[in-house]
User: Fold this.
Amino acid sequence: MKDIRIVFMGTPYFAVGVLKRLVEENYTIVGVITAPDKPAGRGRKLHFSAVKEYALSKDLYLMQPPNLKDEAFIQELKNLNANLQIVVAFRMLPKIVWAMPEYGTFNLHASLLPQYRGAAPINWAVINGEKETGVTTFYIDEKIDTGAIIDSRKVSISPEETAGSLHDKLLDLGADLVVSTVQQIQNGEVTTKIQSRDAQFQEAPKLTADNTRIDWSWSGERIDRFIRGLYPYPVAWTMLEQNGEQLKTKVYAVSWESENHEEVIGSITTTKSELKVAISDGYIKVLELQLPGKKRMSIKDLLNGFSFESEANFS
Assistant:
C-alpha cells in the first residue's frame, strides 16, 4: 500500500466535510490551501473561509496564496513533499500546481460528470428538475471539469428538494467518495474513464444577478423549481413595482396552484395572510420574502405591517 501525503484545497463549508472525513480517517494532511481572507459585513472585518476555520482548529499547515503561480508559493508547495492533491470547491489550478504530485491531483465535483460542468451544479440540477444527480471524482487537466473520471456516486432528487437539502446529501456522499478514491489510489486500483468531448451536456454556470431573477411568465412548476434551486443561497429575486418605486425583493419560498384566469402576469393579490402572484398557468403563493432593508419574513408577518397597493406587481 502506498504512503499517501495529501495537500487539500478548498474554501466553502462543502469542502470542510471532506477534509474532516480525511482527518478522521487518519490520512496525513501535509498542507491545506484556501482562499485569502475577505472583508465582509458592515464593519468590513476580515472573514475566514470555512476551510480555514477548520484547518486552524486542527492545527493543519495552512496556505492562502493570492496568486497560484507565485514562485514563493510554488516553492512552499514543493517543500511539503505531497504525493497527492485533493481539490473540493476551489478555483482553477495552473498546470505547475496540478501536475506536481506523483499520484496526481483529483477533484470532487457535485454532479454526475460530464453533466453539469461548472460553478453551480447543485443549484442547476434542482432548477432543471433533474430526478437524480451525484458526485464525481476526476483527475484535473487543462480545462474545467473535463478530466478523466475516477469514480462516482448517485443520489435521487426529491420533488421538494432545495439546493440546501441537496447540498447536505452530497456533502456526506462526496466525503465517502473521496475516501474511497484515495483508497483506490493507495492500492493501485484506479481505472479511469475519459469524458466525452463532443456531446452536448447540461452546464452549471456561475450564478449571477442576471440568471437568478424570476420570470413570472414561466409555468408554476418551473418557478417553484427555480426558487427551490436558489435556496438558501443566493436566493431568487424579483422587482416589486409599487407607488412608482422598484424594490428588489428576495423570494425564499413559494407554493403554486394551477388555475385558469385572465389576470395580468405578475399582478399581486393579497388577503390578511396571503399573497398570490398571477402566472401563465395559475398562481404562485409567496410564503417568505425579504424587502430591501428589511429582514426575511413570512408573508403573514409582513402583511401585519406592510400594504401592497392595488396596482402592485412583480416583474
User: Anything to note?
Assistant: The chain has two domains: 5-203, 220-314. The CA atoms of residues 272 and 291 lie 18 Å apart. The mean pLDDT is 95.
